Automatic annotation (TrEMBL):
Entries under SMART domains matching the protein: Fapy_DNA_glyco, H2TH
Domain Formamidopyrimidine-DNA glycosylase catalytic: 2-101
Domain FPG-type: 206-240
Protein name: DNA-formamidopyrimidine glycosylase family protein
Length: 243
């Protein structure tokens, strides 16, 4: 599943179509795709893992899910879920969720929970964590209503950086450590973006998919953790378990 930084890259790659009119539209998406024809794209936006194509009175929301892909100015053999053709090129999405959001896009999203948005508000994240003290931190970091854009790679790397065991209980983690975790969710997301653009993201992974702790030279533990049962890679020696 693409994480927030990958969707930001998509937004940057399609700027050539901003302000352009859709001259034809096709695809298997379960929406009224005819609404898009002859409409002009006002802007492209992202909210976490959501890619947003904004028109005058509605927005098309694309979620790439686990295996979604896209092609710019080219096509795959398989039929696209949504294909937009412009005078200067085309944009095709595959194996994804496509929905229409009516009205002003700002009425649908809280931009302050997106860790890569200019309106990101870490204080709001603090307040929301205080309301769920019994949850495991591995679940909370993946909560898109608190850390929109954070996926499993970022979760593992942030917890490792902050020396926190993924099964730690939120209410037991010291305040200063919680503050560090919140900050790192945004910091690491921008580093992820930088490394991915340079095609060297995996070179910088210190926890995700790793077998040995770089700090302790001891075996990592691999485990499906929390209610979400997502893969966690952690060092039981240096990542503190707060319970």
């Amino acid at each position: 599943m693409p994480e927030g930084p990958s969707i930001v890259i998509l937004k940057e790659e399609v700027q050539q179509f901003a302000g352009k009119k859709v001259i034809s539209v096709s695809g298997s998406a379960n929406i009224d795709i005819s609404r898009l024809k002859d409409k002009t794209i006002l802007a492209f936006k992202t909210w976490g893992k959501h890619f947003l194509i904004c028109f005058d009175s509605f927005t098309v929301k694309i979620h790439l899910l686990m295996f979604g892909t896209y092609r710019i100015n080219e096509r795959k053999v398989s039929k696209p879920r949504l294909s937009l053709v412009f005078e200067n090129g085309e944009l095709n999405f595959y194996t994804c969720s496509v929905k229409i959001l009516e009205g002003d896009i700002n009425s649908h999203y809280d931009w302050s929970v997106d860790v890569m948005n200019e309106n990101w508000n870490p204080k709001k994240a603090h307040l929301r964590l205080e309301k769920i003290p019994e949850k495991m931190i591995c679940d909370v970091i993946l909560d898109q209503d608190i850390f929109s854009g954070v996926g499993n790679i970022i979760k593992n790397e942030v917890l490792y950086r902050c020396y926190v065991h993924p099964e730690s209980i939120v209410g037991k983690i010291p305040f200063h450590i919680t503050s560090q975790l919140i900050a790192e969710c945004s910091i690491y997301s921008f580093e992820f973006l930088y490394w991915k653009k340079k095609f060297e993201l995996k070179q910088h992974w210190e926890a995700y998919t790793k077998n040995v702790c770089l700090r302790c030279n001891l075996p990592f533990q691999k485990k499906q953790t929390g209610e979400r049962k997502r893969r966690s890679f952690f060092c039981p020696n240096c990542q503190q378990l707060y319970k």
